[in-house]
Amino acid sequence: MAKLRVAVLFGGRSGEHEVSLVSAASVLQSLDRRKYEIVPVGITLEGRWLSAGGAAARSPERVLREGRPVLLPPEPAPAGAARRAEILRADVALPILHGTFGEDGTIQGLLELCGIPYVGAGVLASAVGMDKEIMKRLFVQAGLPIVPWLSFRRRQWRRAPESVLAAVVRRLDYPVFVKPANLGSSVGISKARDREQLRRALQLAARYDTKLIVEQGVDAREIECSVLGNDDPRASLPGEILPGREFYDYEAKYLETGTQYRIPAPLAPGLRRRVQQLAIGAFRAVDCSGLARVDFLLARRGAQLWVNEINTMPGFTPISMFPKLWAVSGLPYPRLLDRMIALALERARERAHNRYQR
Ligand SMILES: Nc1ncnc2c1ncn2[C@@H]1O[C@H](COP(=O)(O)OP(=O)(O)O)[C@@H](O)[C@H]1O
Ligand SMILES: [Mg+2]
Q1: Which of 4, 39, 207, 266 is paired with 297 by a 20 to 30 Å CA distance?
Q2: Which residues of the chain have pLDDT under 70?
Q3: Which of 213, 236, 214, 215 is nearest to 224 (CA)?
Q4: Confidence (pLDDT) at 299
Q5: Are 175 and 227 found together in one domain?
C-alpha cells in the first residue's frame, strides 16, 4: 500500500513561530515513517513556504534555512503548469502552527480550497478559538460558566477612555485582566489592580488588536484538559499548571523554568469529571473537530470552575500539556499523532458527502 503523504506545516507569520518549530521538531521525529511519507513545510516569518528532503527534513530549522520554495495553489489537484516553485502535494496536512495565520482559520481555509484534508479544527472553530469575544459569546450560549467580562472596540477606548474606565469600575472589581481579543501566548495581557494600571493595560492591549477584553480577575488554580475526536469527542485526564510568576504570562510560558506541572491534576473525582464534561461542552460550543485543549480557572476557595478558553492547536512539544495529558490517559505520543491524522481523514470523508450544488 502506498504510504500516506503527510505535509507537516510549521513556523508561520506569528508571534508563536519559535514555539511551532519546537513542536514540529518532535512531530517530525515521532511520525511513523513506515506509514507516512513526510513532507516538511516551513513557513518563514515573512510567509514564504519552503520544503526539504533528506536529512534536513527532520529539522525545522534546516528546512527553513536550506529548503526550496513550494506553493499550494488554491485549486483542487492543479494541473501543475511550469512555475517557480514546486507544487506541494499531500494526502493530509498537519498544521503545527500557533496563533495568527495558522490557528485562526486562514491556513484551514487555504487547505479547504486545495481539497487537502487537515488535522484539527476547521475554518469556523479555528477562527472562533482565536477570538476571545466570540468564543465567550458561544460559551455563554452553551451554558458554560465563564468569568464576568466586558469588551470594547479600540476606537471606543481611544475616543472616550473615561467612559470605558467607568464601565469597567461599575461592572467589575479589581483586580481585572485586560486582553487583546485575538492573540495567544499571553501577549498584550496584563493584570490591573487600580485605575492607573487599568489605563495602562488597555493602552497595551490596544496595540495588538481592534477589540479589547476586560475580565474579572479570580484567585484560581489553572486546570487544562485535552480533547480528541470529531462527532464523539473524548476528554483526557486534566492537568494543572503552577506558574512560578504572578500569572501564566509570556515569560512563565516560554522563558522561565519556574513553572510546574501536575499531570494529572490532583482533583476529587467529581471535580475531575466536571472538568472533562465542560471540556467537551466547550469543544462542541465552538464546533471544534480533531483536537483542542480547554483551559479552566478553578477557584482556590470554594469549587467554582470557569472555562477560560479553548486552544484549537495547543503546544505540541514533548513537554507540552496536550500530549502529556494523553500519555497519562493511555495514548502515547506516536499513537496520538496517528489518531489525529485518522480523525482528519474521517472528517474529510464525512464532508465529502456534502453537495455544494443543487
Ligand atoms: N480572569 C482571570 N483571572 C485570573 N487569571 C487570569 C484571568 N484571565 C487570564 N488569567 C491569567 O492569564 C493567563 C493568560 O490568559 P489567557 O486568557 O489564557 O490568554 P492566552 O490566550 O494568551 O493564553 C492565564 O493562563 C491566567 O494565568
Ligand atoms: Mg491561555
Answers
A1: 207
A2: 74-84, 184, 256
A3: 236
A4: 97
A5: no
User: At how many degrees (to 10) do helices 106-114 and 123-130 cross?
Assistant: 170
pLDDT recorded at residue 78: 53
DSSP 248-311: --HIIIII-S--EEESS----HHHHHHHHHHHHHHHHHTT--EEEEEEEEEESSS--EEEEEEE
Mapped onto helix, strand or coil, the DSSP state of residue 58 is: helix
CATH code where residue 42 lies: 3.40.50.20
In this predicted model, what pLDDT tens digit does every residue of 56-81 receive, in sequence order? Answer: 999 999 999 999 989 887 656 555 44
Within this chain, do residues 292 and 262 fall inside the same structural domain, yes or no? yes
Count of structural domains, the chain: 3
pLDDT tens string 91-107: 999 999 988 888 899 99
257 plus 339 within the same structural domain: yes
Catalytic residue among 20, 23, 59, 185: 185
CATH number at residue 166: 3.30.1490.20
In this structure, which amino acid lies at residue 203?
Answer: Q
Residue 210's closest CA among 160, 155, 129? 155
Q: Model-level pTM? A: 0.92
pLDDT at 77: 55
Among 247, 256, 298, the mutation site with the greatest number of ligand 1 atoms within 8 A of its Cβ is 247
Q: For residue 249, what pLDDT is reported?
A: 78
Question: Residue 77 corresponds to which cell in the numbers above?
Answer: 489537484
243 and 317: one domain?
yes
355 assigned to some structural domain? no
Active site residue 16: yes
Q: What is the pLDDT of residue 81?
A: 46
Q: Are 297 and 148 in contact (CB under 8 A)?
A: no
Q: Residue 77 C-alpha to ligand 1 middle, in angstroms?
A: 42
